[in-house]
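Table S2 (text version). Query chain:
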Amino acid sequence: MGKPDLRRLRRPEKAEEKFLGPLEADVMDRLWRRRSATVRDIVEDLGRSRELAYTTVMTIMVRLHDKGLLERVRDGKTYVYRPAFTREQHRARLSRDLARGLVAEFGDAALAAFTAELDTVDASHRATLRKLAQRGGRGAR
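Corresponding structure-token output:
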């Protein structure tokens, strides 16, 4: 069994699907692109590739709001939703939480695994990662 391709691990396509359901990831993807939208807007966007009930999309967006991933403001009788975080901020927060969870669960074994993976990264990339870590894992804006 060979080593995983670190470029793919660093920024996998649809990374959100690993931690959100496929429909949640699609909704977040559209909201990150649009910056804000109503449920109807997202239903219409998603309707180009598949048919979904308004109530299904509304339920997903309410759940994403409850999870803290979406913010919403009332505009008349409807809500306008927007991402609470950029895609990069979301990935940084998720990565931080996952790393903390692994260290809490596995302690030194997790830290040793992280260190071993860093040894496979070229020196300039390691320097960039150190700078990123010093800023608390927040990506460039």
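Notes on Table S2: The domain at 20-83 is CATH 1.10.10.10 (Arc Repressor Mutant, subunit A). Residues 1-12 have pLDDT under 50 and may be disordered.
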